[in-house]
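The passage that follows is intended for readers who have already worked through the single-chain material. We present the inputs for a multi-component assembly, then the predicted structure in tokenized form, and finally a short commentary. You are encouraged to pause after the input and sketch how you expect the pieces to fit together before reading on.
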Amino acid sequence: MSTGATKISIYERPLEDPLVHLPRSTVLDFRKGQIIYHADQPASSIYLVINGRVKVCRQADPDLPVVVDIYRRDDFFGEGALIGLTRRGEEATALEGTQVMSWTSAEIEDVLLRRPRLGLALIQMLVQRSLEFSQRIVSFSADNTARRLARSLLRLADRMGERTDDGSVHVLPFTHQLLSQYVGTSREIVTHYMNQFRRDGYLRYSRKGMDLYADALADWLRTTA
Amino acid sequence: MSTGATKISIYERPLEDPLVHLPRSTVLDFRKGQIIYHADQPASSIYLVINGRVKVCRQADPDLPVVVDIYRRDDFFGEGALIGLTRRGEEATALEGTQVMSWTSAEIEDVLLRRPRLGLALIQMLVQRSLEFSQRIVSFSADNTARRLARSLLRLADRMGERTDDGSVHVLPFTHQLLSQYVGTSREIVTHYMNQFRRDGYLRYSRKGMDLYADALADWLRTTA
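Having made your guess, compare it with the prediction:
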């Protein structure tokens, strides 16, 4: 959590870190826009982001990709390998120049049987991920598009932002197209609400991305329920 | 998967079964409608359904519960215990007379360090769950309400149904209220589309629940994209 050093933990104790238990693997380089795996491939490996950002999409239909999530340094993706999916069903693309490591499911299993704390670490990572997915499902059920967009911005800022001196959170650039595929609406509607949030002082576009006034936006969510 | 013995597996090999590795625990009984845990409690234990069905809800606001999922025999729920959440954030209720077992996170950790295959089993269960959540997110992004309802019926039939001799899948009763909280719409809209599906021959209400013509409904989804 980079958005507040004094944040009260939602966990009773620190979580296990999977990286402590995994051997180094070869680093693979991907250019901006390069596909890391296709939806039709079998899921043979799990990946870890070393540097850069990765977008994972599912296609509802060929014209309508949905962003499942965006992963950055120290995030795993492609965990379908751990159940040996014969078809990924999702596509992973480098959002910028990106380095990843990968391990086959057999390699993970081998380490896990020797170092069971890796199992605990992966379990905790997956429980957090399920929790975040279920919160997004609730937002889809209950929120209008503006609120869904606000929650998405807060979540991305919380996961990938850096708190700055004036209390805002600096987030690397996301195109409105990408945000729309994450929120589940059109690019035009995202642009409309992003302009509104900007006019209302909840965000500011900066030289390299966006500054989000996260506390103010969270207050807006609370008070306009 | 109870909806087809000849179904082609989406997995390369059989998954690990967590129940093989867990010691028996005390069986707890819950009456229909009884709350198993509240949203405000700390997450101390993970649960396993022995008999019956459990509904897990999150509240977007007090009047709008969203059904995260419905669990039946051999399903785990309450996995927030594994990351020691200080607040559940979700509520679990018995949908009918239900028996569960539970283990504290310390107990799970203890077994897992001695029997690392339990770790692998829980990882695989959680990866499947994440996958299902991400498919629901895609459906929320891309589908209209009728299609979302159809996918929800197919998913519930796949997880909880019994294939009958005439090719339909028998599913225990779900109220339209419950379905609406799963699909993220109003009870009235669920009733409207359930009537339409019934008129079009995709489902039939029976003495104890519902018979779903799952293959026909899946075809409808494919052909009306």
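Commentary: Confidence is low (pLDDT under 50) at residues 1-7 of chain A. Chain A touches chain B through 56 residues (CB under 8 Å). How closely did your sketch match?
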